[in-house]
């Protein structure tokens, strides 16, 4: 039995390897750059994406914008930045200034273990509840209006939350936060992974992963 022709295909790409992914010293989350490997991944994945997209969107964070550039140059388009695609900033960078990835790991692990959806780790951090609501807003306000062949450049945890919500899982409460974290860590979300969302009926999605330019 063949799959039905999709009404729309939305292609989501996680950014290339960033300085933070490589264990670099903490800096402002929105300004984290790509590494040389990340730049190479961005150039490689650009050749694997749709040749004629109807729109290109990107998170405003530097690592996502920079990943989108080789693709935008290839298709002759300019990506539109959408703040709603911003990654989950769980910890204010001021609180972890000067730390490496190894230094940050136990702090992040403790945050997720506490599983408090309303805990704010510094004034410039998101709460888990705010993050989940942001992705829900994208689903309800942006996703229905996206055109037939859209490519979106964004982030790993954000993409995991979108998939989690489309599967119908809850996001409210400590148990949901813990369950989401376990789910997200189990997803194949390496740098420059590609996920394609095929709409088979209005609001019904079939999701497939492609390793893309993963390290």
Describe the structure.
- This protein starts with 7 loop residues before the first strand and ends in a 5-residue tail after the last strand.
- The model has no long low-confidence stretch (mean pLDDT 93).
- With 215 residues, the chain is of the alpha/beta class.
- It is globular.
- The chain has one domain (8-210): 3-Layer(aba) Sandwich (Rossmann fold).
- The protein has helices at residues 36-46, 62-75, 101-114, 128-142, 156-166, 174-186; strands at residues 8-14, 55-58, 80-81, 149-154, 194-201, 204-210.
- The chain has a six-stranded mixed β-sheet.
- Helix 4 crosses helix 5 (156-166).
Search tags:
single chain; 215 residues; Rossmann fold; six-stranded mixed sheet; 16% strand
């Amino acid at each position: 039995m063949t799959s039905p022709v999709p009404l729309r295909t939305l292609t989501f790409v996680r950014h290339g390897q960033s300085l933070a992914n490589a264990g670099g010293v903490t800096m402002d989350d929105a300004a984290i750059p790509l590494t040389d490997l990340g730049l190479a991944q961005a150039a490689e994945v650009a050749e694997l994406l749709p040749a004629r997209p109807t729109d290109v969107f990107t998170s405003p964070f530097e690592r996502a914008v920079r990943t989108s550039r080789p693709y935008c140059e290839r298709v002759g388009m300019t990506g539109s930045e959408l703040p709603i695609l911003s990654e989950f900033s769980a910890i204010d960078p001021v609180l972890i200034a000067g730390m490496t990835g190894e230094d940050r790991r136990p702090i992040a692990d403790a945050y997720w273990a506490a599983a408090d959806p309303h805990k704010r780790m510094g004034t410039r951090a998101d709460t888990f509840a705010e993050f989940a609501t942001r992705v829900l807003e994208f689903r309800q306000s942006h996703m229905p209006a996206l055109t037939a062949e859209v490519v979106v450049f964004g982030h790993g945890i954000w993409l995991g939350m979108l998939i989690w919500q489309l599967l119908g899982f809850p996001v409210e409460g400590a148990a949901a936060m813990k369950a989401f974290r376990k789910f997200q860590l189990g997803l194949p979300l390496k740098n420059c992974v590609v996920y394609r969302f095929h709409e088979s009926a209005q609001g019904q999605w079939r999701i497939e992963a492609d390793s893309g330019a993963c390290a």
